């Protein structure tokens, strides 16, 4: 796969952000969806607090994972970043420019730099268009004329994502799920993005295929220096892909840390519970598991204080009255922030290695790669 990565880095319209410098900054970001009643005169009676004041930075070339249970606001965050949704509060800064409420015209120069990969490789590709037309469309729309023409560029991109360049004229139904997701990746790459928001990019795929697509994304991130916001409910997938991981609960980030700190020394009880619920690498490991009681409360009326308190075994009175700030607790590594009044001891480990599939494990072992099926049902 490595030698197929023939793209050069983009000289985009925004000044290049050096690796390690903040590329995307979310500050107090909010999205509240109005809840209305009445058929005719729709009156707002409340709001879904889908994203409720999050701060997050993604540096150039960095892969940041965003995890949490269904409905916690991950996709809404991704859609805000790509400006498919308008924020109701807070700011989104991209390459130093406030794009929170930028108009279509103002967004035009950076549109190409922020791309999205969607969950469902079936509905996200137009079945009536050839693969060539699908991947070439962003270049056509943006008036980009690559050297050698669009067809040549599309064929290069097909090769980059591990597909046969000769299959330029085929239609999406002729490809398997994994191959379709590769087509989606090629489309996202066509404008040489600097940031890709990948919203559950592998959760619709077979487990054996998931590893191959994650591996491809990881190669692109490393070789092309593309920053990723990788959204997933699956902690194992995020672990393999991300340098830093943010855990969301009911519209808030409750913990954020580099990969090792988060997985080995989780301080927030929610992170600990999520890790405890993940499949174990060692089936003979019978350490105590934390079972999360009840469902996630409604984001229309989130609990006061700490939102996790209604399901937390450590909750006390203070948790109902005071919202815990997201801060570096004593015992946390630098950059490890936790929002909890009664955190886990820094010595408590998640207790186990989180591994979803043996194929994924090979990604983390230097020198080993997953065999890439070209042109098979991958
Ligand atoms: N357009 C909308 N109008 C009203 N509520 C919405 C809208 N989009 C999302 N929501 C609500 O916002 C909350 C967060 O949804 P979101 O899809 O961002 O969560 P998620 O963590 O990505 O979950 P999932 O993994 O199930 O997609 C949910 O309660 C959802 O029902």
UniProtKB/TrEMBL annotation:
Swiss-Prot/TrEMBL keywords: ATP-binding, Nucleotide-binding, Transport
Annotated segments matching region Disordered: 1-22
Domain ABC transporter: 24-275
Keyword ATP-binding: yes
GO biological processes: peptide transport; transmembrane transport
Keyword Transmembrane helix found: no
Gene Ontology terms for molecular function: ATP binding; ATP hydrolysis activity
Family, similarity comment: Belongs to the ABC transporter superfamily.
Protein's name in the database: Dipeptide ABC transporter ATP-binding protein
The species this protein was found in: Peterkaempfera bronchialis
């Amino acid at each position: 796969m490595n030698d197929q990565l023939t793209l050069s880095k983009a000289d985009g319209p925004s000044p290049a952000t050096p690796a390690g410098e903040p590329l995307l900054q979310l500050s107090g970001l909010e999205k509240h969806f109005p809840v209305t009643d009445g058929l005719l005169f729709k009156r707002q009676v409340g709001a879904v607090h889908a994203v409720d004041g999050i701060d997050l930075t993604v540096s150039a070339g960095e892969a940041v994972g965003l995890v949490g249970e269904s409905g916690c606001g991950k996709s809404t965050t991704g859609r805000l970043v790509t400006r498919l949704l308008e924020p109701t509060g807070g700011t989104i800064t991209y390459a130093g420019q406030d794009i929170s409420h930028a108009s279509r015209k103002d967004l035009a120069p950076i549109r190409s730099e922020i791309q999205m990969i969607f969950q469902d490789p079936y509905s996200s590709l137009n079945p009536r268009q050839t693969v060539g037309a699908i991947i070439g469309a962003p270049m056509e729309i943006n008036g980009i004329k690559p050297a050698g023409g669009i067809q040549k560029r599309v064929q290069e991109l097909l090769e980059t994502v591990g597909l046969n360049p000769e299959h330029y004229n085929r239609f999406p139904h002729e490809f398997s799920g994994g191959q379709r997701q590769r087509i989606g990746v090629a489309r996202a790459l066509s404008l040489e993005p600097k940031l890709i928001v990948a919203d559950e990019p592998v959760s619709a795929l077979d487990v054996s295929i998931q590893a191959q697509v994650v591996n491809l994304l990881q190669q692109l991130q490393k070789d092309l220096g593309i920053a990723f916001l990788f959204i997933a409910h699956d902690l194992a997938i995020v672990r393999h892909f991300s340098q830093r991981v943010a855990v969301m609960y009911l519209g808030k980030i409750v913990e954020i840390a580099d990969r090792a700190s988060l997985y080995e020394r989780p301080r927030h009880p929610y992170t600990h519970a999520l890790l405890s619920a993940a499949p174990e690498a060692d089936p003979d490991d019978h350490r105590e598991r934390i079972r999360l009681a009840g469902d996630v409360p409604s984001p229309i009326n989130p609990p006061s204080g700490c939102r996790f308190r209604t399901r937390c075994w450590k909750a006390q009175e203070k948790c109902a009255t005071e919202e815990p700030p997201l801060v570096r607790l004593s015992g946390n590594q630098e950059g490890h922030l936790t929002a909890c009044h009664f955190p886990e001891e820094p010595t408590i480990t998640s207790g186990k290695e989180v591994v979803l599939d043996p194929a994924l494990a090979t990604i983390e072992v230097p020198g080993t790669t997953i065999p890439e099926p070209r042109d098979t049902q991958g």
